[in-house]
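@channel sequence for tomorrow's demo:
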Amino acid sequence: MSELHLWLRHEVRTTERRTPVVPDDARRLVEAGVELTVEDSPQRVFPARAYEGVGARIVPAGSWVSAPSDAVVLGLKELPGRPPELRHRHIFFGHAYKRQPGAADLLRRFAAGGGALLDLEYLVDDDGRRLAAFGFWAGYLGAALAVLQHRGRLTAPLRPTDKDELDEVLRPAAGDEEFSALVTGALGRSGRGARAAFAAAGAEPACWDLAETRDLDRAALLAHDVLVNCVLATAPVPPFVRERDLDDPARRLRTLCDVTCDVGSPLNVLPVYDRTTEWTDPVRRLRKDPPLDLIAIDNLPSLLPRESSVDFSSDLTPRLLDFGVGGGGPWDRCLDRFRRASRELGVTEGESGRA
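structure tokens (generated this afternoon):
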């Protein structure tokens, strides 16, 4: 591993309690020679003192903007709107390569400052498989919230919890009616998580994956009470649910949870809503008669911040230990994908964009 200064930033989203590196793995990084700077963060599930105790330097939240140019800034969700020029290499989920809202502005900020986006969604192995992902816990939470909503037991605002507490409220209670459920993308990480949550809730969903969604039986899809979508399309496909399907008198579907939340993208397989839902108001009614409720929260795993962070950090840390190792590895692929997106937009990043 080449010399690395890693800067773990505070997340500006108030509901984001996860961290990409937990203290136990921070210790591994420090012992391997990584210079680790950690921003203080009042909402992060692990306190700053836990990082300080393993050798990290603690700095104020948001101070990454004045970090040394060679520091690699690590986070999870969106950056604040300023500064307008991004001069560092940033590791986070940028959501900037599929024409999502705000994508062009983000790439232009990197072009203006000469920095680079190393998008965690594109940190993949030689076969294109994600190397670090929150997918299991996104699927688990998505299905759990869908079940609770369908049973009339989902309360708002949502609050972070742990798996034991969540599973307790998921268990079927006297008077709960049976329902039919469907998981699309059932064989992927998110799909496996969704299936596990349905099992905890005493339900057995139908499981569709590529074979079923490639030749979609939309009437059969709409004949389920609950749908949890875990499909993240990488190429255009016919939408699973269309606007006109919401008014189909034969529609049985009552609760729809979109784990993928690809809203605004032309690859969205559920183009029936134009904005996500929030922790304060997690459910949006799309139709009144017959009712159809939508759950579309784009940071679901933060509701189980400790469990999801530990798993993600375990996957990411070995990749951070290999950061800067050339030869066409995962970080080089991340950088290549950033450069291709920048060219497609017609912008050119500066030479500091290097893995």
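heads up for whoever presents: The CA atoms of residues 200 and 300 lie 18 Å apart.
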